[in-house]
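Re: weekly structure request thread

Next one in the queue (333 aa):
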Amino acid sequence: MKERSDLIIGCDWGTTIFRIRIIEINSLKVLAEFDIPEGIGKVNSAFLNSGEKEDRFTFFSKVIARHLKEIALHVDFEITGIPIVASGMASSTIGMKELSYGGLPFSLNFSSLKSETFEANDVLPHPLILVSGLRDVHDVMRGEEVQLLGLSIVLNEAFEDDSVVILPGTHSKHCFVEKGELYGFQTFMTGELYQLLAEHSILHNSVYTTSFTEWSKESSEAFFNGVVQSGNSNMLANLFKVRTNILLDNMDKKSNAMFLSGLLIGEELRSLTVKSDERPIFICGGKSLNVFYLKAIEALNLVHRCRELPDDILTLSTIAGQVEVSKIQKLVL
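Done, posted below.
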């Protein structure tokens, strides 16, 4: 098999999902990709249950090596030795090795990125760059900093003006950038709270989420109502309305799921509705989440401030960020 020197392997290791990609450096083209439900949380549990017979770094390295053997079957070149860039929760307390957080302000030219490089070895025959996260006084992030760095490259956007970059997800991040620097951020547990309420609370019999991403006139109206209602009364009282919507036959369960989503996303975005706030808003959530956030932006009359980005921008930003990290650390030319 021929060897390739123009590639990196990008590992985006979240709490629940492990994403691995073989990426062309110059084109940012993905040659092979797996999304595997073997996130950091699952691997950490397996490590602890193993009795810690080997060190944490080796245990996690073996997981990466196992998936690399699988992805190698889908390309016609030798992948041994290709540099790996691992971002996300891999550098957390439950990851392969904890790295201390970087601080703010954080330059979008990568000069202040914190990482550690490991040489190839018998377990993982690839040089590995482990990327750390960032901390504020009361907040932390791991993985989103690479997405934000990549976004500035993909958009060719220096973010000179004071702007808000929203990265929706299980734990949504609002990133505040100006003059090429991240100067603050805030985390919202929107996605996780939705899951907890819809699956593990008294509300679980009041919502039907199987077709959650299928928009209809009724579900769209329910979502809008949820967003608007989020600002009309206390959130704790609003949440109980999800139950009474069913008890009083005001909604069906599918529409009610949309109402619940609208309540939570509306609550998340409510801080952006201050009249004196005219900062541009960038929504970077990928295809599945962008539609919800853009419709919430519309319901909150913030469309004039919002810059809609392509649906694939989140994935592309992660890829571009990981490629740039490999260049900065001089593992590739």
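The CA atoms of residues 326 and 332 lie 6 Å apart. The longest strand covers residues 181-188.
Next request, please.
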